[in-house]
Amino acid sequence: FRSITDHQGDLAAAVDTFGFKRRRSVVRMSVGIHDLPTRTSLPAGVTSRTYLPDDAARVHALLDRAYETWDTDYVRVSHDDWVAWMTNDPEFDATTWFLAERDGALVGCALWWSSGWLKDVAVELKERGNGLGRALVVHGLHELAGRGITSAGLKVDGANPSGAVALYESLGFRAVRVETLWSLPL
C-alpha cells in the first residue's frame, strides 16, 4: 500500500504545520473472487467448523488477546455488548464465521459478513506462522464464491505486526484506499 500513501505527502506537511502527528494508517483492501487461491490445508491437528452461539465467549476472548498484543488503542468492550454488536448486525451469518480448534481449544477464527467483508481474523500467538490464518481466509473466499459473492473486502491496520497486510496481498487483495488517522497532542 505504499504507492497509495505516497501522494499524502502534501497533506502530511500541512497537518504537521499545526502540530498533528500521524498515528496510523488503515488500509482498505479488496479482491475479486474469480481466480481463487488454491485451498490450503489446515495445520496438522487443527480442525475447523462454523460458529455456534456457545462459542461467543471464546471468540471474543481470542479477538481481545490478538488485538491487545499490538494495538495500543484497542479498547475492550463488555461481552454482552460485543455479542449484541456482532450477532445483531444485518450481515451476521454464523455459517460465515469459521473457527479453528486444536484439541478442543479455539486457536483461530475468520469472521466474514455475508456480503463478503472480512470483519476479523485472529490466530493465537503460538499458532502463528504455520499457515492457519491463510487457510481460514482462503476457506472463506471459497465458501463465499460458492454463494455467488463476486468480491471480498477488508480493512487492516498498516501497523499490524502480524504480517496481515502481506498475507492479504499474497491472496490477491489490493489496497483501494488508505485512511490516515491523525492526532493533536494536547
Roughly what fraction of the amino acids lie in strands? 25-35%
Largest beta sheet: strand ordering: 2-3-4-5-6-1-7
Query: Overall mean pLDDT score?
Result: 90
Largest sheet, strands/sense/barrel: 7 strands, mixed
The arrangement of helices and strands along the chain is HHEEHHEEEHEHE
The rough form would be described as globular
Cα separation of the termini: 30 Å
The count of strands amounts to 7
Number of helices: 6
Give the proportion of residues in helices.
Answer: 25-40%
* Cα radius of gyration in angstroms: 18 Å
Structural class: alpha+beta
Low-pLDDT windows of residues: 1-7
What does this structure look like?
The protein has 186 residues and is of the alpha+beta class. It contains six helices and seven strands; from the N terminus they run ααββααβββαβαβ. It has helices at 2-5, 9-17, 56-68, 79-87, 132-146, 164-170; strands spanning 21-32, 46-50, 97-102, 105-112, 117-123, 151-157, 174-183. The protein has a seven-stranded mixed sheet, with helices on both faces. The radius of gyration is 18 Å and the shape is globular.
